[in-house]
Design goal:
By secondary structure, the chain is of the alpha+beta class.
């Protein structure tokens, strides 16, 4: 009987030690800098994708919708890009709907609150009064700036040239 009690007590001590070690490891992981960096990276990537979608989308079917689209552009941007977009005047015309098909961060400085993102974007453009849309594909690089707690906005946006896209290399005239 005493031997069974000793084994039970020993098993309980081992189980408590295991639970304590697990709790300590979990607490260490929750405060780990690499984990925090990973969360920051994921947030910057998700927000960057979302902002690029907004910056390449515009419903210009009515003046009101075009104005709302330009306001959305300004909300998705910061710095000189925001200022430049603020000068845009809404006009009724073609509408565009964007989808970010691929995106990745190429740089992240979490302390400075800056990141660079590259992305491929598919833009479906529908001319005013037309039934069908044409599709345009873009490769873009965006500089992101953290403007608040975990809020990333686009500070600069540029097209990335496609390597080998010279005449004759994509089925054009040689």
């Amino acid at each position: 009987m005493k031997r069974g009690r000793a084994i039970g007590t020993g098993a309980l001590v081992v189980a408590l030690g295991f639970c304590g070690t697990g709790a300590w490891t979990y607490a260490q992981a929750r405060t780990d800098e690499e984990l925090a960096f990973g969360r920051e990276r994921d947030t910057a990537l998700a927000e960057g994708r979302s902002r690029l979608t907004v910056l390449n989308t515009l419903d210009a079917s009515t003046p009101e919708r075009a104005e709302a689209g330009i306001r959305a552009w300004r909300d998705a941007s910061t710095g000189p890009l925001r200022t430049e977009l603020g000068r845009t005047r809404p006009t009724v015309g073609a509408s565009a709907r964007a989808t970010v098909t691929e995106a990745a961060l190429t740089a992240l400085d979490a302390r400075a609150g800056t990141a660079k993102l590259i992305a491929t974007v598919r833009v479906d453009v529908t001319p005013r009064g037309a039934a069908g849309a044409t599709t345009d594909r873009k490769r873009l690089e965006a500089v992101l700036t953290r403007t608040g707690e975990n809020t990333w906005r686009v500070a600069a946006l540029s097209a990335v040239p496609v390597a080998g896209a010279e005449k004759g290399e994509e089925g054009g005239d040689e």
